[in-house]
Write a structure and sequence with these properties.
The complex is a heterodimer. By secondary structure, chain A is α+β, with helices and mostly antiparallel strands. Chain A is built from four helices and nine strands; from the N terminus they run αααβαββββββββ. Chain A has one domain. In chain B, the strands form two sheets. In chain B, strands 1, 2, 3, 4, 5, 6, 7, 8, 9, 10 and 11 form an eleven-stranded mixed sheet that branches. A two-stranded antiparallel sheet of chain B has the order 12-13. The N and C termini of chain B lie far apart (about 50 Å). The chains are: A alpha+beta, B alpha+beta. At the A-B interface, α1, α4, β2 and β3 of A face β3, β4, β12 and α4 of B.
């Protein structure tokens, strides 16, 4: 019930986003054209007193699919399918997964066992899934100072407080979100994420990682209202080669605010997971 | 819960009246309690710097009223500063609900189910919290169940079209004191493990004040005309956690086969911290 309430609570937001996206010169098309020159002039960016770009604000993934499943499927259109929405040749790279043979068998099995997706049980999404949420649905609030960049995700009220001192990952620590350590490389925030517990899935479509997952993320403010997010996900026991992900986060209009996402307190997602996408209506336990 | 619209209209009206009547009183209180301590400032050289990891040193999480020692738990003095008897001024019918909550607390406490703690309960948990702050931004991240609150300026009204676990927070500065107005909190949240509670009509005014470089005084004035006969105030102090390398660690709950949820530690390799997949493919590394 709480999940549904949270959605209703910001029901105006997707509408406003839609209006904005339909304006000439705004929207994904405009955002993507800027990607041909990923580095904005230094003077064009807001900066903190320490000289680094100011990533603060409320942001929302602007494009892309529903975690590998589908978007806008009422008419059967799958905007998340390759070539639709996230891989349209305009700079947004949809992930391509190349699994080892054993891992590929596991992935196929997980497609069947979609109801075991930990996010359906309100668990932390992991990285990069925390940011790779359905486009235009869950915002992330960024608060930053000279020591850290903190990501407060609406979805699953997931939090990452990323120190920007290039410090080392701790020993003997295994977490759903891993351990994030950041540093500035010019105007790009580079985040190294390791120490995963191996329990998270990458999406609702069976794509997965184990505890050998290692992610390198890049956050680049490409204009005042756009962060380009890039992630390289490697996992030698699962993938033949690293998986690349790339999408943009757009600034959410100032009159909007992050809301609470209470999932565990009455989650209703699990009932929507069927044994196979569109297949038999096998309900979860 | 029978008529949410009526309830909402009622609360909005109440909140308006409360804010209007509160302001002069709290201003006087501010002046009276001003001390010589001047906190460090953020980069704007103006905003008091509340950043850091903080935690209380008391056992109010067990019972915000005075309580005797129990196995594994020290006795504690009431953190209720007003009324002077240190007791929550329940209406008689509400007091019986509190006794019922206390009797069933082992299973009824929402915190035992790994739900977000609510306000003010999240402030005096036996786990740390971190204040994130920059000029114009203020948020608290609680280690317990990775709950967080983003504080919004009080220039806009509460977003109270539904009830949240952590409420909707609007704040302003009164000198070096951060004053936060919290509304729209669900009646499912408790105030402590003893079953102290409020209704959806609860309205809280928090005051955050640095009383030393490593001490943060926290005050919450709690008003709820449904449950209490008069507003009451709790006050406690959070201390800066100075342990080297201290960070908020991940706190996530897993459900066991019987549906009971357990906090799992990111430091315990035995505790389901390896994926089922990798366990079946190769020996666990730890």
């Amino acid at each position: 019930m709480k999940v549904l309430r949270a959605h209703h609570g910001r029901s105006t937001l997707p509408a406003i986003i839609c209006v904005l996206l339909s304006l000439p010169g705004a929207g994904p098309g405009a955002a993507q054209t800027t990607e041909t020159s990923p580095k904005a002039p230094r003077s064009a960016l807001l900066r903190l007193p320490d000289g680094h770009p100011d990533l603060q604000g409320l942001w929302m993934k602007s494009d892309g699919g529903f975690q590998g499943l589908f978007v806008g499927s009422l008419d059967g259109t799958n905007f998340a399918a390759p070539g639709r929405g996230r891989g349209d040749g305009r700079g947004v790279v949809g992930p391509t997964y190349e699994y080892t043979p054993a891992a590929e068998a596991e992935r196929k099995d997980r497609v069947r066992r979609g109801y075991e997706d930990p996010e359906a049980r309100c668990h932390l999404p992991g990285v990069p899934r925390a940011l790779d949420q359905p486009g235009g649905l869950y915002p992330v609030q960024i608060i930053q100072d000279e020591k850290y960049v903190a990501l407060l995700h609406e979805a699953m009220h997931d939090v990452r407080i990323i120190p920007t001192d290039n410090s080392k990952h701790p020993p003997n620590y295994w977490a759903w979100d891993g351990d994030s350590r950041g540093r500035w490389e010019g105007d790009t925030l580079l985040v190294d994420v390791s120490n995963f517990n191996g329990r998270t899935w990458l999406d609702m479509a069976g794509n997965f990682v184990d505890e050998n997952e290692h992610v390198v993320e890049r956050f680049t403010l490409i204009d005042l209202d756009t962060i380009l997010y890039e992630a390289s996900i490697s996992d030698p026991t699962v993938f033949v080669k690293p998986v690349q992900m790339r999408f943009t986060l757009k600034r959410v209009p100032a009159e909007q605010q992050i809301l609470e996402y209470s999932c565990l307190e009455g989650e209703r997602s699990l009932q929507h997971y069927t044994e196979e996408d569109g297949g038999r209506k096998r309900r979860a336990r | 819960m029978s008529n949410p619209l009526t309830r909402l209209a009622l609360r909005s009206t109440l909140a308006g009246v409360v804010v209007a009547t509160l302001v002069p009183g709290s201003g006087a209180q501010t002046a009276a309690r001003k001390t010589a301590f001047s906190p460090a400032r953020l980069s704007d050289r103006k905003t008091p710097d509340f950043r850091g990891i903080w935690q209380v040193h008391d056992t109010a999480y067990v019972n915000i009223e005075g309580h005797p020692a129990e196995k594994g738990i020290a006795a504690g003095k009431s953190i209720i500063a007003d009324p002077p008897d240190g007791k929550i001024p329940y209406k008689p019918e509400a007091l019986s609900q509190r006794q019922e909550n206390y009797r069933t607390r082992a299973t009824a406490d929402p915190s035992g189910k790994c739900y977000q703690a609510g306000v003010p309960r999240a402030m005096y948990l036996p786990t740390p919290l971190q204040i994130l702050q920059s000029p114009g931004n203020f948020a608290i991240v609680y280690q317990e169940n990775h709950a967080f609150r983003v504080f919004h300026p009080d220039t806009r009204p509460h977003f109270d079209s539904t009830d949240w676990w952590m409420g909707d927070t609007r704040y302003r500065w009164e000198g070096d004191i951060l004053v936060a107005d919290v509304a729209a909190i669900t009646d499912q949240a408790w105030l402590d493990q003893a079953g102290n509670f409020h209704s959806t009509e609860v309205h809280i005014v928090e005051r955050y004040r640095l009383i030393g470089p490593d001490a943060l005084e926290y005050e919450a004035r709690v008003e709820d005309p449904v449950v209490y006969s008069r507003p009451w105030t709790l006050r406690t102090v959070l201390y800066r956690v100075k342990q080297p390398g201290m960070r908020i660690i991940e706190d996530e709950c897993l459900e066991d086969a019987t549906g009971v949820r357990h906090h799992i530690s990111p430091y315990d390799p035995r505790n389901l911290l390896k994926s089922d997949y990798s366990r079946s493919k190769k020996p666990a590394q730890e």
